[in-house]
Structures are given as C-alpha cells and as structure tokens.
C-alpha cells in the first residue's frame, strides 16, 4: 500500500520528510520505505496549442504553435494522432529531463524546427497500463483550460511523495488511507480528522427496484446496495484520476473511479453494476454450481461449487470479493447504477482468487479482512463522490441483503502487568495517552484498565495486544536493555537428530557431497519409490504439477541431481541427502515426518591416474559405505543384506533390503536399467536408511579390551556350491558351527566359468580363530573346522575343494 503524503495531509498535519516518516513508521513494526515519484523530471509545463498545420514532408507529423507562457509561442513538431488546436497539453521544454535518462533538445524534424516535445503520460512517468485508455496511443490532453507555462507536476501528481508500507497480514487496517492516517498519526501524536460523507437529502428517494437475496449469510455477513437513477457517466476529476494512477489503478469513468477511490480511501472494496443489465432487476449472492461460467472482458472462467458468486437470474455477474464479469459493466451509455458494498469470507475469497488466478486489489483486502463497521459509510461515500462529479436524479435508501452489527472489542488489562511485561514504569496518564492516540477508549478502575477497540482494529483480542500497541507507540528503541531473567535452557539436538548428524558426518568423511532438495514431487516420482507403502499426500494448491505431492522417498530428488549434472558432463558423482519423508497411513489426515538419509553414486569412484586405473562404482562399493554407516549406529543388532526384486525401479539382481534382526530399515542397490534410460542417467547405485528405525535399535555396551596376547590361527576353505545359495547363508552357518573361538570370516575368492559345474560357483573363505586367554592348539582348530565343513555339506550339499 502506497500512502500519498499530499493525500495524508487532508487528515493530519504533515511537515516531515518522507524519508523521516518511513523510518519512524518502520520503528513501530510496520516496514516502510520512501517513494519519491518523478525526481528526474525537469522543465515540464502546460502548453496551449494555438495552431496546427500538416508537416510539409511527412504524412503523419504536424507542426504546432504552442503557448508555453513565454513572450512568444514556440514551434513543436508532433506525431501524435490526437493532437489538435486549442488543446492544453504537457510540454517538455528544451533541456527537459524525462524518465530513463531521456533529455529533450531543440532540433529539426524533416526540416522543420522543433523546440520541445508534446508528451503523453507514459513519457512523463505514468505507466501506460494505468493511464486513461483514451490517451494510450497519443498525447495527454487536460479536460479543462490551464495556465500556459504552469509546471505540470502537481496537476498530474508526477512528483508525489509516498510511503510504501509492507503490511503484515494482521494489519490490513492500513490498506486504506483512513487506517494509515490513524497509524501514522499515532506515531506523531496527531489524531486524524475525517469528514463523514453526506448525501443531498433532496435526491434520496424511497425506491427499491432491486430484489436482493443472500443465500450464504454465514459467508457474507454484510451486503448493502444503493440505486442511482438517471446518471450521466462522465470523466472523473483530474485530482481523482492522478491519485488512482499513482495507486496503480487505471481511471475509467466517474462511476468506476469513485468505487476504486473509496477502496483506497477506506480499505473497503465497492462494486458497481449497470442496473439495466440485470435480469429481472435481482441480485443473488450464492455458491456457484459446477459448470457455471464467468464472462470476463477477454476470458471466460469455469466455476465450481466452492466459489461465491454475485448473480442476476441465470447470469453470473462476478466472483464475490474478487472480480466483476463483463455482463453488467458500467460504460458511457449507462443510465442507472447499482452500488454494492459487502463483507465476504476471507478464506473463501483467497481460495477462489488462487484457484482462478484472479488476484486483485479487492481480493487482497477481503483475504486479510475489512472493517465491517464502515461498510455503510463507504457505500455512502461512493454515492457522494458520484453525485459530486456526475448528474444524478435520485438515490435510493440503503437496501439491505444482510447486515451484522459491528461490535467493538473490549479488552481488560492491568497497568502494572503492562509495565511488567515491557520492563518499564509508565504512568497511567502515559499509557492512556498512547491508547487515545490510537483512537481507543479507556476506562480505569484502580489498576485495572478496560480498553474499547474500534472495529477497524479487528486484529486485537487479548491483553498481550494492548502491551504490543503500547510498546510500538512508546518505541521499541526506548525500551531498557536488560538481561533475560529466569532459568537458562541448555540448547542442543535431540538424540535422534544427533544420530542423523553423526551419519551425515560419516558420509562427508567418505567424500560424498550433501544436497538439499524440495520436499515436493510429482505423482510419478512418489509412485516410483514408494518403498514404505505410504498413502500419497497431495497439496490443495500446488505451485506446479511437478510439486503436487509430499515426498515418500529421498531417491527421486537424488536422481534429479544426477540427471542434472550428467546432462552437463559432470559424470562422477557421489551425493547424499539427510531430510524427512512423509508417511501417511490409510485414514490418517496428516502424514508422519520421518528422518531418512539417502545417497547416490554414479561414474568412477577412483579416477584415472598415472599409478591407478579408473574404477567404476559397483554394488559392493556402495554396500561398503552402508556398512560403515551401520557400524556407527552402535546398534546391538545383526545387520544383513537380503537380495530382493520387489522394487520395480531397482535392478532385480543387484538390490538388497537392509535388515536389522529381520526388520527392514532400508535398501541398497542399482537403479533399474529401464529407469535409468527413462531419466537419461548412467549406471547409478543408491541407498536409503530410516534413521528413526536405526535409532530405536538396542544399543551395545561398548567396553575397552586389551590387545590379544596370543596369536590367531587361520584356515582357508574352498567350496563348490549352487548359484542359488547366497554368501550370507554360508557365512551365517560358518559362525553357527565354528565354535566360540571363531573370530572372523571373510570371502576372498569367487569363481564361475571354465572347469566349474554349470549353475555352480567356487567360493573361497578365510577363517580366523582366536582364544584371548590361551594359545589355540591345532586339535581345537581342526575340530571346529571339521564341524564347519560337515555342516556345509549336510545343509547346502557343497563340495569341499
């Protein structure tokens, strides 16, 4: 909202610079910045065109003689199609400065001397989309005679000083000049004075040609209209037009401009209709039906049952609180006008505006809230402005569709408590003075104060709001500097977050790079890796189709990162993300947020060098990283990797579930070749772990142990086994039968091919035996080794080699 200082002077005395005012308002909690329009403009004056002749060497240029208040007229060559004799226009003199660094110099145009330029509004700083439509393609012409040579800045508001306030949603009262005057006045201890609008009683008639039916009274607590009969639609006065275009509103005509002017003045949107275009002279405020259409000037919107509409018969005139259609617009042929002012449910207006992409000045105000105490006054003000500028034969009384009496809010508080919370010792008089500056009424009984809040400040409801207002107006900078009292709270992370941070540090130590992705995915992505079997959580109003659903896995985001980098020839990637996924159970309204950690590796993990060959990532490399992570969880659990083909977008032969005591805590493996091709990425291996599941595992009691005093004994075992037997099964069985001194087992050889039975493989294992308390004998080791071999032969039908 831009507050015009010249306009503000009508309500309160203003003798401060716009910069000083913006700074002081910002200190009260409303961010403000100064705006000085047209600072670069110079030498712009009113000119009176006394003679126009065709240019002798051009079809469209004209040679004009212009009176600019000097002793002699000056000649200016102009190409505007609307230039003619006896016009009062804007003239940029020789040496004048215009926006964007343009400077006017005298010269010749096709042989004819030109001593300046006759300007359009867009050439002097008014954006073309906000200036009157009749001057879009030509020069600006004053409606009334002006004194030649007079500077045009004040006439057109070209150098208006403004304060641009960036309000918070709870301070929508400052979206009108009246509310802003109260706020700025309180800052300077000045109470604004407003003139109450009055109508010519001789023109008010007891007539009611329109029937009004508000079918959704719970969503439309106030709805008032007035009829204006035998109106002559004209141009609005220049003072109103310049205030409108400085507020980024295009002047249209005396009726529409009056409504827009009151919206800026009061913060209350008002709509106007051509009464003769209504079907059966009726207005109905109701919910739209699916399939209803709203015809706009250059578009058509399909409505649904969630939209509040203003209708007349079968015609939809507009979306309540958002925009009017083209069915009943007021134009130069309008004879009878209907004015409408109401209060519409903010949430409904906001959702409708978003749904149809029709945000407007009116919807912005209804979304944040309007003062239902000034609806009637705003309606009267519009009628007053219209009758001031346009001939009107008769005005109806207010016609009430729905009315809710505006009740002021009453808040009780304690002077001592207010001072205690502020850390001050203000007197009763000082606090009452602050409330009075804000326009609040107070009653004091002992220490208890009762404050009556006007309806324009609907954001205030509790005593804490009173404290905030006293703080703001007294000045935050004036509050004493004190140290906080009370117990100190030790900061830190939750144990779950500590584990996540530890895992993150491990991956950073492994040389992986951390990424951060959006938590929103498209539908295909949430379907691709729904490994947890979650219900999908869709946003009501997504930004785009690519951001419709809350993620149920981190892998799709990592795949996007891989694809983006590989498309730019960055092929060797090792990335991870630590974030939350959203798991929603069937019938559950809100999803559970679960911390996960996931990684993706693609390309070479060892670079080509003079002393090493390049090495591509494989399943065992990424499995090793996962095992490293799991070792740092300190979990008293048996982690296993179980081959699986249940994930459709993972390679069926190179994917495993990660289990802790048979509980699935994650997955690791290679992306399916078809999935990789679809996303234009090379071979990529991924893993994903549920941090909460890992945290909830029982913890080991770690004890320090001295280094073994006695040597270990090793045995190597080579076996021939069927391809359907997994290495994990063999190792588990070796540990189960190796006795209490079996310390470690690892596989050192895998062979398939020539000289091996079909569908078989040869595996080599290294067994380490260790007795920490004594030296092992060959007899003890051989006995344990024999048990291992016998068990393997019996259970897996292996051949010992």
Question: How would you describe this structure to a colleague?
Answer:
- By secondary structure, this protein is an alpha+beta fold.
- It contains 20 helices and 41 strands.
- It folds into six domains: about 1-35 and about 160-185, 2-Layer Sandwich (Phenylalanyl-tRNA Synthetase, Chain B, domain 1), CATH 3.30.56; about 40-155, Nucleic acid-binding proteins (OB fold (Dihydrolipoamide Acetyltransferase, E2P)); about 200-400, Phenylalanyl-tRNA Synthetase, Chain B, domain 3 (3-Layer(bba) Sandwich); about 410-480, Phenylalanyl-tRNA Synthetase, Chain B, domain 1, CATH 3.30.56; about 495-695, Bira Bifunctional Protein, Domain 2 (BirA Bifunctional Protein, domain 2, 2-Layer Sandwich); about 715-800, Ferrodoxin-fold anticodon-binding domain (Alpha-Beta Plaits).
- The N and C termini lie far apart (about 85 Å).
- Helix 7 (about 345-355) runs antiparallel to helix 8.
- Strands 27-30-31-37-36-35-34 form a seven-stranded mixed β-sheet, with helices on both faces. Strands 11, 13, 14, 21, 22 and 23 form a six-stranded mixed β-sheet that branches. Strands 5-4-3-6-9 form a five-stranded antiparallel β-sheet, with no helix packed on it.
């Amino acid at each position: 909202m831009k507050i015009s200082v010249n306009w503000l002077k009508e309500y309160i005395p203003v003798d401060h610079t716009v910069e000083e005012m913006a700074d002081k308002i910002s200190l009260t909690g409303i961010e403000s910045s100064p705006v000085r329009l047209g600072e670069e403009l110079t030498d712009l004056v009113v000119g009176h065109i006394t003679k126009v002749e065709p240019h002798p060497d051009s079809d469209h240029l004209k040679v004009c003689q212009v009176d600019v208040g000097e002793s002699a007229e000056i000649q200016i060559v102009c190409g505007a199609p609307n230039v003619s004799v006896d016009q009062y226009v804007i003239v940029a003199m020789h040496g004048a400065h215009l926006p964007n660094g343009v400077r006017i110099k005298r010269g010749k145009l096709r042989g004819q001397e030109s001593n300046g330029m006759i300007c359009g509004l867009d050439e002097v700083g008014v954006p073309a989309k906000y200036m009157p439509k009749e001057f879009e393609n030509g020069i600006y012409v004053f409606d009334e005679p002006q004194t030649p040579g007079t500077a045009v800045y004040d006439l057109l508001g070209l150098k208006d000083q403004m304060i641009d306030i960036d309000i918070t949603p709870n301070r929508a009262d400052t979206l009108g000049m009246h509310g802003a005057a109260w706020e700025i006045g309180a800052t300077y201890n000045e109470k604004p004075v407003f003139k109450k609008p009055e109508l010519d009683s001789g023109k008010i008639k007891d007539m009611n040609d329109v029937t009004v039916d508000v079918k959704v009274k719970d969503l439309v607590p106030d709805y008032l209209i007035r009829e204006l009969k035998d109106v002559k639609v004209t141009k609005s006065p220049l003072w109103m037009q310049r205030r409108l275009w400085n507020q980024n509103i295009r002047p249209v005509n005396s009726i529409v401009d009056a409504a827009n002017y009151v919206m800026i003045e009061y913060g209350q949107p008002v709509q106007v209709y051509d009464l003769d275009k209504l079907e059966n002279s009726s207005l109905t405020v109701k919910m739209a039906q699916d399939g209803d259409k709203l015809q706009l000037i250059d578009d058509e919107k399909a409505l649904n049952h969630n939209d509040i509409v203003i209708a007349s018969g079968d015609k939809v005139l507009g979306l309540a609180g958002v925009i009017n259609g083209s069915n009943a617009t007021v134009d130069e042929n309008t004879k009878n006008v209907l004015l409408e002012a109401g209060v519409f449910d903010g949430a409904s207006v906001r959702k409708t505006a978003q749904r149809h992409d029709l945000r407007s000045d009116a919807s912005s105000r209804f979304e944040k809230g309007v003062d239902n105490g000034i609806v009637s006054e705003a309606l009267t003000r519009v009628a007053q402005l219209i009758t001031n500028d346009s001939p009107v034969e008769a005005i109806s009384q207010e016609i009430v569709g729905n009315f809710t009496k505006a009740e002021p809010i009453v808040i009780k508080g304690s002077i001592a408590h207010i001072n205690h919370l502020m850390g001050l010792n203000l007197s009763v008089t000082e606090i009452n003075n602050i409330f009075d500056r804000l326009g609040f009424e107070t009653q004091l009984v002992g220490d208890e104060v009762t404050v009556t809040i006007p309806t324009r400040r609907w954001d205030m409801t509790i005593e804490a709001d009173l404290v905030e207002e006293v703080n703001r107006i007294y000045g935050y900078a004036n509050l004493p500097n004190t140290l906080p009292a009370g117990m100190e709270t030790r900061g830190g992370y939750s144990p779950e977050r500590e584990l996540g941070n530890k895992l993150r540090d491990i991956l950073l130590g492994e040389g992986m790079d951390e990424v951060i992705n959006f938590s929103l995915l498209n539908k295909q992505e949430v379907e691709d890796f729904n490994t947890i079997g979650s219900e999908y959580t869709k946003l009501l109003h997504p930004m785009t189709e690519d951001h419709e659903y809350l993620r149920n896995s981190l892998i799709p985001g990592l795949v996007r990162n891989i694809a983006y980098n590989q498309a730019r020839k960055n092929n060797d990637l090792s990335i991870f993300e630590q974030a939350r996924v959203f798991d929603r159970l069937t019938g559950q309204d809100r999803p559970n947020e679960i911390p996960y950690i996931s990684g993706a590796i693609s390309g070479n993990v060892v670079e080509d060098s003079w002393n090493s060959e390049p090495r591509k990532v494989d399943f065992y490399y990424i499995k090793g990283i996962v095992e490293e992570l799991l070792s740092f969880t300190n979990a008293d659990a048996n982690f296993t990797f179980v081959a699986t083909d249940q994930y459709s977008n993972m390679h069926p032969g190179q994917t495993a579930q990660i289990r802790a005591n048979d509980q699935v805590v994650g997955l690791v493996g290679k992306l399916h070749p078809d999935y990789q091709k679809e996303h234009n990425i090379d071979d990529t291996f991924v893993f994903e772990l549920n941090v909460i599941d890992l945290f909830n595992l029982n913890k080991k009691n770690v004890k320090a142990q001295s280094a073994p005093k006695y040597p270990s004994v090793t045995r190597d075992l080579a076996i021939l086994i069927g391809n359907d037997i997994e290495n994990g099964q063999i190792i588990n069985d070796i540990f189960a039968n190796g006795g209490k001194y079996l310390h470690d087992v690892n596989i050192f050889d895998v062979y398939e091919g020539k000289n091996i039975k079909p569908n078989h493989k040869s595996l080599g294992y290294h067994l380490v035996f260790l007795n920490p308390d004594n030296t092992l004998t060959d007899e003890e080791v051989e006995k344990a080794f024999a048990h291992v071999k016998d068990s393997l032969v019996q259970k897996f039908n292996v051949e010992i080699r």
